[in-house]
Write a structure and sequence with these properties.
With about 150 residues, this protein is of the alpha+beta class. It has one domain. It contains three helices and six strands. The structure holds zinc ion.
C-alpha cells in the first residue's frame, strides 16, 4: 500500500458511472471515476486548511480539506495505536475459545474474537491509507456525492 503523503499522488475523482455486478450470493457495486490531478494544491506547513480545486469534469470549484504532513502522520499513528490495542482482546478471546473447547461459550468467544480481528484490520487499514485530504465538510451534499479524493493510479 502506498503510504506516501505526497499531494501529487492524489487525484480529484468525479463519479462517471456505477455498475452493479450480481452474483449468486452477493451484489457488488463498482464505481467508475474520472480522475484529475490536484494541480497546485500543497500541504500547509501546519494544521489543516481548506482550499478549492477546479473539477474539469463538471466545472465546479470543489472545496478540499488538506492536512499538513504532521497531521497526517499523527492520525496514522493514532489509528496504529488503536490497531495494536485491539489485537490483544482479539487474541485473548480466540485463545479462550480454544481453552474452553467447543460449546456455546467457545462459540461466543470466537465470534467476539472475530469481531475484534475485523476492527483491528479496519484500524490498521485506516492507519495505512489516511491520505490527509478530503472533500471539505462545507461542500454541498450533491457535490460530496460525486467527488472524492482518490489515490492516483499514475
Ligand atoms: Zn466534478
Amino acid at each position: 500500500m502506498d503510504r506516501s503523503t505526497d499531494m501529487a499522488k492524489l487525484d480529484l475523482g468525479h463519479v462517471v458511472g456505477r455498475s452493479t455486478k450480481h452474483r449468486i450470493n452477493s451484489t457488488t457495486t463498482v464505481t467508475q471515476w474520472a480522475l484529475y490531478p490536484l494541480g497546485g494544491v500543497r500541504r500547509p506547513a501546519d494544521g489543516t486548511y481548506v482550499t478549492s480545486v477546479y473539477c474539469r469534469r463538471c466545472g465546479r470549484a470543489v472545496r478540499l480539506s488538506v492536512d499538513s504532513e504532521t497531521v497526517v502522520l499523527k492520525k496514522r499513528r493514532t489509528w496504529g495505536i488503536w490497531g495494536w490495542s485491539l489485537t490483544c482482546p482479539a487474541l485473548v478471546m480466540i485463545l479462550i475459545a480454544f481453552v474452553v473447547g467447543f460449546g456455546t461459550a467457545a462459540g461466543g468467544s470466537l465470534i467476539g474474537g472475530g469481531a475484534f480481528v475485523l476492527l483491528t484490520g479496519l484500524a490498521f487499514g485506516a492507519a495505512a491509507s489516511d491520505t490527509g485530504a478530503r472533500i471539505a465538510k462545507g461542500e454541498p451534499r450533491a457535490s460530496r456525492k460525486i467527488h472524492e479524493i482518490r489515490r492516483s493510479l499514475r
